[in-house]
Each structure stands twice: as C-alpha cells, then as structure tokens.
Amino acid sequence: MSRNDFSRLFDQLEALTLGFGPVFREFHVPTTNYPPHNIIKKTDNVYILEVAVAGFKKNEITVQEHQGELIVKGTKENVYEEDPQDEYQFRGIGRRNFEKKFKMAEFLEIVDAKMEDGILSITLMRNIPEEAQPKLIAIK
Q1: Which of 6, 66, 92, 106 suits 126 as a labelling partner, its CA being 20 to 30 A distant?
Q2: Count of alpha carbons within 13 Å of 50, Cβ hemisphere only?
C-alpha cells in the first residue's frame, strides 16, 4: 500500500468520524520494519505486542510510554565488538540499534513487559473509567 493509498484511506476515515482528523494527519507509515513485531488481540481489552529482539540483552532494551505513544528502543552496548579471530561467512542477525513507536488508543495501559527467548512481550489492557463508559440517556 503506497503513501497515497493511506492518504486516501485517511480522508475517507476522517469523513466518517468526529474529531479524529489530527490523529489521521499525525499517523505515518514506518520506514523500516526492523525489528519485526506481532500484535495479538487476546480479548476485546487485552493486547500483546511481541517484538523480536534476538541478540539484545534486557539492559539494552527500554520500553517507555509517553503522551499516548509506546516507544521500544534497543541500544547495543558494543555494536561492533567481536572476536577478531571470527570470520563471518554470513551475517543475518541484526546488530543495529532501533527505535519503534506505536500509537496507543485512549485508555490503553501497559501492564507487563517481559523478555524470553529473544522475544519482548508487552501486555496492554484497555481500562475504561466509569465516567467514560456509555450512558443510557432517558428521553422525556
């Protein structure tokens, strides 16, 4: 899907929604898909974001939430540190630093983050406060 296709889609969505124009204009298509990730919907209110972080240690990964955006950052301590006697025949495991940003829906909260077997799993839960839930309006 090209950037023009997204632009047309956003124009159509904006015509069908109220007050979401700034959100659609703010949206951008990522220029890289490194590292790869999955988004899993467990229930209507629980999601899991999985990010493939093979080769990174826990202390080289940060997960941050800021102004409705989830930011996952990987910073290698020694990107180029290698054994000088090693001769790579092929290098396919990424060793570069990265930063991935995800827009979070309103009322979505990060409840857990864990790293196992090269996969960073971040659990998010939608927690809608009582005052934001639908109300039935009596007609007089």
Answers
A1: 6
A2: 11
